[in-house]
Predict the structure of Polyketide cyclase/dehydrase/lipid transport protein.
Amino acid sequence: MTQQLRASSAVASSAGQAFAGLFRLLKLARPDRPIHPQGLGLHGTLTRTGNPSGPSGIDWLDAPGTDQVVARFSRSVGLPQALPDILGLALRVSPPGAGGPADVLFASTGWGLPGRFLLVPRLDVAGAAMTTLMPYRGSRGPVLLGLRTRSLPPGSLASGAWVLGLHWATPGGRWRECGEVRLQAGASPTDIPLRFDPLEHQPPGAQAYSWTRRLRKPSYRAARRPAPPAVGRPTEPGHPAEPSAGHRGSTTATGRNSMSTVSQLFKTPSADVWRVIADGWLYSGWVVGASRIRDVDAEWPRVGSQLHHSVGAWPLVIDDSSRVTAVEPGRSLELVARGWPMGEAKVEMTLEDRGNQCLVTIAEDAIRGPGKLMPKFLRDPLISARNRETLRRLELMAIGGAGK
């Protein structure tokens, strides 16, 4: 038995480190939240009916009562809403007299066996089952929690009350209903910055098994580490981080996807950086993927002007162009970059002058063509890696005095 426990612990630890490595990779594209990148904040109540027919062994579940709830609904991978995704619902409940909140995380799974232990992508919450996936340890043994939708508001989750039935079961037993959760969005539906941690904030009478801690804790730690250099937007003391250009106003309720965004603090003033950007003939020197510049409109970089470039390496070279869609000289430039047959991308560049330094940000995402068909969680790291190298090249050219 001791050897089996050691083997199980070793497997959980190895899997936990593997998940943590994946989270660190995802943070290159999503420095704030590597998974569940966009969410919808909700609030409401959880009414516990208790378990008179048979206790679960978790004090919180077995005692009737009403808890205030703050919740976040999200899609795990962040795929477009037209595609199935792993759905997530995080609850922060505040049981009266418990001495602190409890975080309970649910994900879309099956309901029977073995489906209740398997993640299942869903298009929406209608008919979806959600469980804690991993059991809690109660006084009578392992307990799994589950939610099933009872009723939905018309339209999106932001338009009314979402009512779910709360259930519990032993890992191989039948589900028993023990309460109801009622949630709704605020007057102005938006995401919330709250971070949930089911390992640190557990319901009264419930504990996490040591193997679940080994499996989950490395990932939580990796997800909350500071963003790698040239990924997150740097902040200064007393100045909260602002959402990047591609993330403003983007929520799960609206179905809009954020852009892949990277930033770098240049050791040169913004005027030097803008001189390079404003010289279209220099783009092949700092834009990764641009192999040559064939022509530049005389009015570049005014709105509507084009830069005629080639993409790829000889002899596999594609001729196409990029067009300016918005510009604020010295501060920002927005382009639609074409590279058919791969498609088109929207690119936004912003410069924030900081005296002898400049914070340069590139936000980009595919908007048309085959490139947009690649799942966002796959294309984001590729775009981010390319644009980090683009920023390095741009800084070197600005420091070297390039540009008209």
